[in-house]
Amino acid sequence: MPPRKTRDELLDEIGELRRRLAEAMAQAATLNENKRAEIALRESEERYRRLFEDDLTGDYVSTPEGELLACNPAFVSLFGFSDRQEALQCNMASLYPSETDRTVFVNALKASGKLEYYECVRRRRDGTLIHVVENAVGVLGAEGDLQQIRGYLFDNTAHKRAEQALVEAEERYRSLIEFLPDAVLVSDGETILFANPTAARLLGAARPEELVGRSLFDFFLPDTQPEIAERTQRATADGLSGPPERRKIRRLDSRLVDVETAVTPFVFDGKACVLRVNRDITARVTAEETVLKKDREISLQLQKIEKLNAALTTLLEHRELESRQKLESVRATLEKLVLPYLDNLKTTPLDEEQRILIDVMVSNLTNIGSSFARQLSSWKTKLTPTEIQVADLLRLGRRTKEIAVLLKVSPSAVSFHRNNIRAKLALTRTSTNLVSYLRVVEESSGPSLPSPARRRLRPARKAEGPAAVARRRSRSPAGP
């Protein structure tokens, strides 16, 4: 039986057990802390991995020499790789347009330690150049040397293309404005902010820059400035355009020019302004004034002509009246002093030829001033003297043989003259009877018309030419 331990020995054992228990508890606490730290680390790594994998920017880790250590799917897609494995096999230097671009990037990162919003150009796997914005952080060693590069790339190609398109559009617009034949002014209400070369020429400036900064109202007449200010206010405040207006403006040399101006709201350098398009219409206004002056002159001339025409008409009517009075006087004299003697002469013994000649004389004297006589006068340029005699005898109803005896020519000659008369009176290819035509001419108008009683008894008939009347009478011998 082992000897019993003393009190001191028991106390020593208890103390040792307590010490060991404390050590065990300390070790357990340390193990728990390490476990929790390990779990937290794994969770952090998982969060970082998911953030890295799901990030929309192209994230990568590489060495300064260009070896790609890690990249996310967005990086793979950005540079056109088929998968991550293919991307990790490439060197970052191959993703730059040139070695110089890579060197500039690395040196800038070494100098500052990080780069923010670094705009640059990169090369995709297929050689296509893209615009990117990059944030990069350099991981430095103990001695301050660059050991790793962590970069985050955002594809900026679409934005750059939009910017370039905007720049090109603005350049085209500026070129259009520069070469526009109309004078263009942009103002913020009163101050001129832009002028094209045409505006400089219109306003008498050597260069458009001489107009920039000047007051718009320097070029308008004082009485029009309130209206200009009101219209400018409507365009800037209310965004309202108006129809083109004509007005006069004063050049720098004080000369006035006529312009047609269109005003419209316009944004210039992000500011609400007014665009004025001015067209020089001085030549047009001068031409219009010349036309108006000519119109007034022509109107005055027409008034004078109308007065002269009225006076001439009155004079002609007076002359016509005098002519008719004289003709009536001649006819009265013939009827009283000549025709009775011819009638007495017809009662004396005469041969047939003499009788016919007297009948012709009586008929022609009776028809002095008749339409047939006037018509024969108008035909003088067409008919020969013999043809005029033949036409007169045909009108009186004389046959070809009688005419041949009276004119002492052969019947064939009379027929020849008849054909010539038809041709000259445009009756050759018509069915119009020549004798009827000549009689219609005699009866058409003039002092020798039938008596008033016969005119009243004649039925009204639509106006017809001599040829039409002659054709109608030839179809109906017993005409009216």
Architecture overview:
It is a single chain. This protein has helices at residues 7-54, 73-78, 84-88, 99-112, 157-179, 197-203, 225-238, 282-346, 352-366, 371-378, 385-395, 400-407, 411-424, 434-443, 452-457, 466-475; strands spanning 58-62, 68-71, 114-123, 129-140, 146-155, 183-187, 192-195, 245-250, 256-268, 271-280. With 480 residues, the chain is of the alpha+beta class. It has five domains: 11-54; 57-162, Beta-Lactamase; 180-280, PAS domain (Beta-Lactamase); 290-347; 349-475, no CATH class. Strands 2-1-5-4-3 form a five-stranded antiparallel sheet. α14 (434-443) packs across α16. The chain is rod-shaped, with a radius of gyration of 61 Å. Mean pLDDT is 81; it is low at 445-463 and 476-480.
Quick structural summary:
Helix content is 55%, strand content 16%.
H and E order: HEEHHHEEEHEEHHEEEHHHHHHHHH
What is the average of the pLDDT values? 81
Flag low-confidence runs: 445-463, 476-480
- How widely separated are the two ends? 191 Å
- The neighbouring-strand order within the major sheet is 2-1-5-4-3
Put simply, the count of helices is 16
Radius of gyration: 61 Å
Give the biggest sheet. 5 strands, antiparallel
Binned, the helix content reads 55-70%
| Count of the domains | 5
Structural class by sheet pairing and helices: alpha+beta
Write down the overall geometry: rod-shaped
Question: How many strands?
Answer: 10
SS strand fraction: 15-25%
